Amino acid sequence: MLALRQVHHIAVIGSDYAVSKHFYCDILGFTLLAEVYRAERDSWKADLALNGQYTIELFSFPAPAPRPSHPEACGLRHLAFSVDDMDSAIAELQTAGVVCEPVRIDPYTHSRFTFFNDPDGLPLELYETPRG
């Protein structure tokens, strides 16, 4: 068996780098660790951290191909973030103009969750895991 230790990062390609960077940093609260423009590819790459942990590589490329992003499409289904307080998190997203689906209850854990999208339609989830 392969000895994986943890997920190192998640790569996201945005169609508009500035819009995606604003969304992930200013709305979701990621911290920009590093940013580089790769002239030979006409591409930006940013390393983003969540609570000090390197989490997302944000890329831009000229005219990226569209990808199905419906939650039930084959491939990556969604990216989920845990929150302590679902109502507060939803209120903050709504203040920033982000639309969230109605809150659902996980039938197995009884935790609350909701879905929303990044600027390119990537499905994202908030999953309430209160600290106890």
Describe the structure.
- By secondary structure, the protein is α/β, with parallel strands linked by helices.
- It folds into two domains: 1-65, 2,3-Dihydroxybiphenyl 1,2-Dioxygenase, domain 1 (Roll), CATH 3.10.180.10; 66-132, 2,3-Dihydroxybiphenyl 1,2-Dioxygenase, domain 1 (Roll).
- It has two helices and eight strands.
- The strands form two sheets. The chain has a four-stranded mixed β-sheet. Strands 5-8-7-6 form a four-stranded mixed β-sheet, with no helix packed on it.
- The longest helix is centred in the first third of the chain and has 11 residues, at 17-27.
- The mean pLDDT is 90.
> Based on the structure given, which CATH architecture of the largest domain is correct?
Roll
Instruction: Using the coordinates shown, work out and report the CATH topology of the largest domain.
Output: 2,3-Dihydroxybiphenyl 1,2-Dioxygenase, domain 1
Instruction: Note the run of SSEs as H and E.
Output: EHEEEEHEEE
Number of strands: 8
Overall average pLDDT: 90
Radius of gyration: 16 Å
Largest sheet: 4 strands, mixed
Distance between the termini: 34 Å
State the domain count: 2
Low-confidence stretches: none
Tally the helices. Answer: 2
Strand order, sheet with most strands: 1-4-3-2
CATH superfamily of the largest domain: 2,3-Dihydroxybiphenyl 1,2-Dioxygenase, domain 1
Shape: globular
**CATH class annotation of the largest domain:** Alpha Beta
**Proportion of residues in extended strands:** 35-45%
Question: Structural class of the secondary structure composition?
Answer: alpha/beta
How helical, in percent, are the residues?
10-25%
